[in-house]
Amino acid sequence: MNQRRELWQQVCTEENLEMTNLEELQSIGLFLGGQPVLFRKINLAFFQEETDFEYKPTIGARLQVHFDHEKQQVIIQRNPVELTLTFDQYLTYMGLIDAVFSEIYPTGSVIELNEELLSDELKQMFGDSELGLSVLIHGRRLPFEDSTACIDYIASLWPFGMAPGTEPIYVTNLMIKRVISSGLTNETEEQFAFEVLRKQWIDEGKRSYLYKVR
């Protein structure tokens, strides 16, 4: 986590975010990056076109987020910080937080998907199976549609894997409900994930397709 905190300090720049209030952006970004469940819930609220989101911790400042869909504006408040972002700025900002802080699961991991967030096509695929919503990760942060947008994971139905006549399953971080079994990892894998799939990926201006400015 310390590596990611240091990386955030390095990449939370006016060049990457095209915004100038960097002290406030760094503060909120560090907070959200250290709260993955909260980060996920806020973005689910945004993509599901909700109007307001509130987080009241037992200890610490309350977080309030207001999504103004008419003005295409987001207001994030956590005392003493208040951010006002356009929808495009919000996607850029959240995309960078995601790139720095989100877990990158090893290949070979088996994960369970959240049924509520699946397309009708995927629901039909899993509806024909008695094995639940489990998929096997084959690839990570791969190009998707253009040179800068990437999909978080490429997967296949577990336990079958890739088979003739089957299409890969494209998985975003928001679709992941839980990790059932983590793939093999060691120092080499961890270094690759951080240096290439995280740091180099950010340096090249790549972001998850989920946060692509529409």
Automatic annotation (TrEMBL):
Domain of life: Bacteria
Pfam families: DUF4176 (PF13780)
Designated name of the protein: DUF4176 domain-containing protein
Taxonomic lineage: Bacteria, Bacillati, Bacillota, Bacilli, Lactobacillales
